[in-house]
Amino acid sequence: MSLVAKRPLPEPTQTIQDSAPQLLSSSLSTARIYKRIRLTARKIVGTPTSILAYVNLLEDTTNSNDALQVLIKISEAMLFDESEFPEAIRLLVEHFRREPESAVRVKVLALFGDLATDTGIDCPQLIDEVIALLKGETSAKVISQGLQALERIGKACNPTVAYVNKMVFFAKSKLFSPSHNVQRHAILLLGEFVLISDAEKESLELIGKYTDSPDARVRAQAFRSMLTLGERGVVLPSSLYARACGALTDDYECVRKEALHMIYELGVRHPEQNIKLPESEQEIRLIDDAFGKVCNALCDLSMHIRTLAAELLGGMTMVSDEFLHQTLDKKLMSNMRKKKSLHERNAEHFTSGEWSSGKKWADDAPKEMVNADSVSLMASGACGALVQGLEDEFLEVRTASVNSMCKLALRNPPFAVTSLDFLVDMFNDEIEEVRLRAIYSLTAISKHIILREDQLETMLSSLEDYSVEVREGLHLMLGACKVSTKACLSLVVQKVLDVLLKYPEDRLSTFGCMQRVGQKHPEICMSLTPQLLQDHPFFDSAERDVEDPSYVCILIMLFNAAQHLPPMLSLFPETIVKHYAYLRDTMPNFVPLLNLGGQSTELTLTRSTGSRQFLETLLNNIQLAYSAPQARQALLKTAQENLDRLAEIDPSFSGTANFTAVFLGTQLLMEQLQIATTGQPTKAPLKDCLGQLIRQCLKLQNLFSSLTLEDELLVKQMCLRASALNLVLVVKDRSQSALAPCQLLLHIAADASSFLQENSSLVADSFTSAILTKLASIGDPRPGRVFREILPVVQAAAPVAIPRINTNIKMCKARILEPSESSFNSDNVIKVTAGLIAAVPLVAELENLQETQRQDVRLKIKYPDQNVHVIVPRKKDLKKIMTEQGESQSHWRLRTTVLLSHGVWTEASPVDISICLSVRPGSELELCKPVKVHFAPKPVKRGI
């Protein structure tokens, strides 16, 4: 007997989290020999409910309302014994047959779908029962629910071909139902489960016929099911194109939406196929015609359709250049006559000197009549489409248009040059998100463009934007783009320095901008060097302040330009040599290594010769000390210190060094605690050592990414050893309950066994195999019995195997940029009235943070009286860092405000602010060293 999904939470009387923090949370094993581990772990937290008890209550009901309430209770419970399912299904089927109320029958079918999704019920039997029940059903609601239940059952269990054919045959028989809801669910079922071979023969055509259904929901579902078949591998024929084009004029938005998707798919799948234009013998590429149809959808009345059309344009990169460039052409045509502006018409009247006298018929008719045959289809389709999208009243449409323009420009350099002016115009949009998208899009296509002076004026005017993200985005864009002339670069430098005086908090972003500007314009920087340094050819200039941010920006730009153009070094005065040495030491990430002042070489460690060789030697020495416990422990302590130092010296190898250091530190703690299990005295308190061991295991599980399967197995085995040691020491101590450590051990063992079965190529060590075998043999795993079984294994455990060198490992860590300890020292104190709030801006960068860990980021504030506050930052405060290559995948920037408040202090004291990762309630792993901010709450002044 086994249990199935939705295990209830532990009862409040248990203290699992207080006595032994949970090392990991994962699904339990489903293997045969470890099912008993899973079973007994759940016996502690709850007893399964008998589904037959509920069904028997259903049999005793006297009206449909009571029956419905019982069915709702069944769907809410979902903790049943699988052996009772066949009998329960039989009783539910019998009740279905005699139930007169359609709502109850609908709930029974919905319950079948829930059971298939949330439990391990026999799905083939359930499919047969549902189909048999629906064959004699007359209610359209019940049939619709039955078709939906069949879809859920099929997705949950992957039925065989025979059962797939049963569901498909039944769905086809219901296509002729007068109910639109039945037809819609039948078409949905066909799209999900019809065999690919059958779909290409007849099912695709059968579904296509329902695109002409009188009901809009059926028409939309027909297109959606055909697209689903295309996603499953069915070849969508180009003959569907005409049908999709006709649906673009449908009165209902849902139909137009699916038809637009179909046109896009057919255009991308058959780009080179030629089709005839309506009422003409002229042929055109399918992708070009589809592009025009999608552009036409940008004039749709629905905002959602316009947004979708703007998004789809970005994926149609195979369109012809003439069609693509027409999307930015503002010339419109109406009644075969070119439209001109009022200014153009008045100018023509003025230059001609003639006015209509009214005596001659049509003497004021338009002069430039256009032949209808010479009009290209582009003028009515793609003409001005993207321009219209950029000028739309809804920000969703404008944002999608900017993104699509960027995607198309990346594939077509001439189009990138043409679209430059339109993207620059979007810098003045009223919505910040649109401005940011335009800035990032221009950054992405910067390799195809060179900025002119008139374009730079519009861009630089946006540098004074109130939004710090817009300013940083413009810094990134200016560093990525190239300018054409010396005047352009001078304009950029002057504007950037002026804005820096207004927004001094943009210091680091401005430094990065000037660094990239210098790298991309070494020749122009060389011509501006005397002007920027104010170096007179005959007279000595006064030495400028090296702490001035504007002067530092200029030096950073010139030093980076000199890296690519060494003759620039001869233009630097003598004072620049001293300033270079200072900036090279204080800002090595902005100032490159130059042959200036005798500093031409630098000691570096590389993976192949330095860091890797050192780590290999270190691990070999630890392995050689396998049989000498005292020497091994001393070597482990020394190795930790050396690896921490290696992580600081070689940033490219820091992840591997940190992972190995934490792993070795965990092993050292484990060997010390293993001695305590034999009754020998230890120097450190056991409780403190156990707490450190658990934190080390949490670090191994949560702070490192890009681990191999072997590394993951080592971490799981380490956690299993730690949980076994925890249980043994807690039982020996007898000062607290061992129930929670026992349950924790069972959970971790089940997870390890599941991992080993999913990866059969991996082999567990002797300790893991012995522990799993012992736990599987225990029928009733109470803490005392588990302790007696695993004690000899724990006492005789050999050291864990040393991990192999994996240079791809990355460690999650943070770096607080603001506030810095230099800006909030003992002379610069935050003063506030006691009890009120002081707001401290915080800017930090987080590296190698996974998407799933985003919601676990916390701010930790520690006051001098040892009070600790853990704050959850807002989601919008944590965003991915933008680079010239696009959005970073694992690097984030946290920009928020820390609120400080306290009672009266006699003098200013430091408050620690750090960034943590919450791995479980009450356990936070610090990602960086805390920054100290001097805070002084003053007493309330009693005035008049």
Automatic annotation (TrEMBL):
<dbReference type="InterPro" id="IPR056235">
    <property type="entry name" value="INTS4_8HBD"/>
</dbReference>
<feature type="domain" description="INTS4 8 helical bundle">
    <location>
        <begin position="612"/>
        <end position="806"/>
    </location>
</feature>
<protein>
    <recommendedName>
        <fullName>Integrator complex subunit 4</fullName>
    </recommendedName>
</protein>
<dbReference type="Pfam" id="PF25458">
    <property type="entry name" value="INTS4_C"/>
</dbReference>
<dbReference type="Pfam" id="PF24493">
    <property type="entry name" value="INTS4_8HBD"/>
</dbReference>
<dbReference type="InterPro" id="IPR011989">
    <property type="entry name" value="ARM-like"/>
</dbReference>
<keyword id="KW-0539">Nucleus</keyword>
<dbReference type="InterPro" id="IPR057412">
    <property type="entry name" value="INTS4_C"/>
</dbReference>
<dbReference type="InterPro" id="IPR016024">
    <property type="entry name" value="ARM-type_fold"/>
</dbReference>
<feature type="domain" description="Integrator complex subunit 4/Protein SIEL C-terminal Ig-like">
    <location>
        <begin position="816"/>
        <end position="940"/>
    </location>
</feature>
